[in-house]
């Protein structure tokens, strides 16, 4: 899934921005729900804020997964490490 998101042109920074954006949208939806529907109670506004606020952890988790994929994925540093690991595994001649 992370590779698919990267192919769509998204990066970890975009996912982090979307996480922070969803926090701001959560506050905005809470405030809008309070003012837009005068007859509605505070619980309705809270539910809207919580619903949108639950998106933030998902975006942050995807951002962290994409950051790891960017660093260690198909084009990441793990290829360099494999080369060094092969050098470290050379047999030691004794005697």
Automatic annotation (TrEMBL):
<protein>
    <recommendedName>
        <fullName>DUF2637 domain-containing protein</fullName>
    </recommendedName>
</protein>
